[in-house]
Amino acid sequence: MNRIDKISAFLNQQPKDNFLRHALALEYIKIGEDIKARDLFIQILMETPDYIGSYYHLAKTLEKLQDPDAAIVWYEKGMAAAKLAKDDHAYRELQGAYEDLVF
Q1: What pLDDT is recorded for position 1?
Q2: Residues 57-81, mean pLDDT to the nearest whole number
Q3: d(CA 10, CA 8)
Q4: CA distance 94 to 80
Q5: How many domains does the chain have?
Q6: Which terminus of the chain, N or C, has less C-beta within 10 A?
Q7: d(CA 6, CA 27)
């Protein structure tokens, strides 16, 4: 059983577990299934906007999918969420990636 199958099996038992959904999205990225990863990250963030770690990965995935406008939107949303959560590390990481894309 590969990692995607294992994570999917756990998700069958806990379908709203953001850690598992995030991990599955990262596995999809590893195998080039960027659309599936994007959709999972969006699902996580629409349901749980304070799941800060998914903003960076979603925006990077959108960059990879040649959608810089959407990536900018998600970087900005992530920076706002990180600021609200007082997560300075995540804020700086999102800001750096945002600035790399915009400037």
Answers
A1: 73
A2: 98
A3: 5
A4: 10
A5: 1
A6: C
A7: 11
Distance CA 36, CA 56 (A): 16
Q: Can you give the residue range of the structural domain that contains 30?
A: 3-102
The label of the residue with tokens 């991990």 reads 23
Token pair of 42 as six digits: 């969006």
Q: What is the longest distance spanned by two Cα atoms in the chain?
A: 44
- State the virtual CA torsion across 16, 22, 24, 26 in degrees, nearest 10: 170
Answering whether pTM is above 0.90, one says yes
The Cα–Cα gap between 37 and 30 comes to 10
In angstroms, rounded to a whole number, what is the distance separating the alpha carbons of residues 38 and 24?
11
Q: List pLDDT tens digits, range 10-62.
A: 999 999 999 999 999 999 999 999 999 999 999 999 999 999 999 999 999 99
No. of helices (H) and no. of strands (E), the chain: 6, 0
Alpha carbon distance 58, 81 (integer Å) = 14
